[in-house]
Specification:
Blueprint lengths: L4 H19 L6 H8 L3 H7 L3 H25 L5 H17 L2 H7 L5 H28 L8 H11 L6 H5 L3 H16 L5 H8 L1 H13 L2
Length: 217
Amino acid sequence: MRKDPEERKDEMIDAAERLFSAKGYQDTSVDDICDELGVAHGLFYYYFDSKEDVIKALTERFINELESNLEQIVKDQDLKADEKFLKFLNLSFQRKKKRPYLASYFSREDSPKIYYTLFNETVEALVPFLTQIVEQGVEEEVFNTEFPEQTILFWLNGRLFLFDQDRFEENKFFEDIKAEAYLLERLLGTEDDFLTDFYEEHENEIEDFIEEVNQGD
């Protein structure tokens, strides 16, 4: 039975993700993806113009998953605002940890255009939900800011800085995210170091993630 085109496309994306995870983006070729599925090159190029298009598809899948999960976090009436924020950060990190090839790809010097495009899509998807969390925190007097949406926009756009290739290679990433946590706590107007504590608690996991990213360059 002939497969639905979207099902076949998803199979290619899944195969590429397995290979990128095992070998890294740079060491995976279109030939490898086709061999993984046992299909001709023509079928690959029917769905994608290049290997870079597969990265775009994987990133968009990641954004959609994150948006869906964040929506569920926001709707959870049993969680306080700071708990929701931490749950989102943990979810985001755990999903990124499974895909070190994405961070490795986007830290390359030759990928800024696609990175900025997809980064803007991520910001657009997440801002409404994270703004609701901050507004909840203001009502609970956990946060103290008159500008919930702008706080989230400044924070997310500042994250562009985190994936600079040189800072990955100089092992400054963990220092950078601790600084990011400190600054966000100040923007949120909280006296609690809940974000800084979160990163310190996950320091070993983060360092392992950075090592995997650097190995994928």
